[in-house]
């Protein structure tokens, strides 16, 4: 709380302080709030808007780039697998077209062809010739399959219609995963025969693993029922069903988003391999795929937070500075208004006093002359016997008239100087004049006033009226601070060749350190309950500054205060011009 | 010494005239400026004691008019405003100023001072 209070701007605490004709013109807290809110909205809304557009755009762009890349990989893989199969099928077709059935029926010839095929195209395991009755008439390979009858098998019926055949991966008699490709050749006499080859799937699997699939990517083949045909990295083993929906037939490579068993988003790229029972499946985890987006996203959010923080700091700083400046200007305006009002009030009181004094002076003069004449008649004329008692009474009347005359003279003198300009003044005389107004109060309250003047105080050019106001305010304050029976010490001394110093010390209630720092601020008063306006010392401070002087105060709570006023013997240029 | 007293306060001017007469001065008095000018036309005065503020013609204006009649006439001014020092400081006139109520002894001393050659 105390740390916060250090950062609280001046206008924050005083927005409701002044009322009446001199109330503050603005609600500075409200202005500050509006300024902060409006500038924040104007700057942050476009920033957040642009950033969110950029966020979405970048996210979509990275996402679509990743999808496109996966699609491209899928498309390439599809072409490669398709090429792998069609290449081998073309090789078989070439063999059956270039060789007579008789030649192919010779084991040596068939073995030679198998050797050539294996050398040229990896993966050929065996080779068999099957006549139109489905009987394998010749066979070369690691197994003993010569004479095997395929006439009842589905593929043999299918090849008769289509002219070629590519099988799914299966274990067969060999109990080893493999696939079969076969090409039919029709002879001129209308009969046909089939050349059938078994392919090792190792080469097939290698082909799928060549594709670079970053992260937890997986590429494998399934058949049209969703049974896995090639080994997977992160999925079920071969011949198990995939845990995803089998994609609908499409001539093109397709991509779709799905959730896996643990609820994570995955991207599935699928492609039907033409003229085969295979569907290529590429599975990628979306999080892995969007890893680069996560980093970009963090950078974007970091940039946004950083920008918002900087903008808010700048807005708060500038708004506070501007509103505080406005507040200080308004305070100065209020202070000037108060000072003008105070001066006007003082001038009005002065003029009123002068009017009263003048009006009293004339009847006083008559009383004075009449009493004087009575005394003269008694003294100078022999018509009346000299009665010392009467003369004594007349002297008393004359003395009282003289006293009244002094009071009215002082009042007139004081009033005349309220609007006065620069003239030669003697500081001792001014303080004596001011004390003349307070003598009676000092007497009633038994306050001892000790005056310590020296004779070598030079006369100097200054504003008598302002000096009277200054000392009247300070001495009045000292009287207010003291209880009955107090003591006031007033000392005037020259200070160097250019200044004169007056110090006024009372043994009154004193002030705390926190009060001491604020006593010259306008509207700060420790006497608000007893009618203090908080302007007396502020105006005094302003007047002393106008005369080019300085005021210092030292005080101890409960012990009293000393006000030290330093005045220049030469007026500052600006005051002198006035 | 023959003295002309001019003040619009009749009570004041008559009493002061009587007191000065008791002290051996020859005193004429007037409450209006034109009465004072008429007296000056008729008599020769050493000194004129004028109130500064009078209805119609001020003490300083009257001084000018009287000087046209009697060139060597000396003047003392009486005032109900301010202090003697204020007047002395604020006026270009090299005359004596006394603020009411006045002390008769000070007035007489100033009168003698004023007519000194």
Topology readout:
The complex is a heterodimer of chains A (578) and B (117).
Chain A: H1 2-7, H2 10-13, H3 28-98, H4 101-104, H5 107-120, E1 124-131, E2 136-140, H6 154-162, E3 164-166, E4 178-186, E5 192-200, H7 201-209, E6 218-223, E7 254-259, E8 265-272, E9 278-285, H8 286-289, H9 291-380, H10 388-416, E10 422-425, H11 427-444, E11 448-452, E12 460-463, H12 464-481, E13 487-495, E14 499-506, H13 513-516, H14 536-546, E15 550-556, E16 560-568, H15 573-577
Parallel strand pairs in A: 11-13
Antiparallel strand pairs in A: 1-2, 1-5, 3-4, 4-5, 6-9, 7-8, 8-9, 10-12, 13-14, 14-16, 15-16
Helix pairs in contact in A: 3-9, 9-10, 11-12, 12-14
Chain B: E1 2-6, H1 10-22, E2 26-30, H2 33-42, E3 47-51, H3 59-69, E4 74-79, H4 84-90, E5 96-99, H5 104-115
Parallel strand pairs in B: 1-2, 1-3, 3-4, 4-5
Helix pairs in contact in B: 2-3
What are the salient characteristics of this protein?
heterodimer; A: 578 residues; alpha+beta; Beta-Lactamase; 2 domains; 5-stranded antiparallel β-sheet; 5-stranded mixed β-sheet; 15 helices; 19% strand; B: 117 residues; alpha/beta; 5-stranded parallel β-sheet; 5 helices
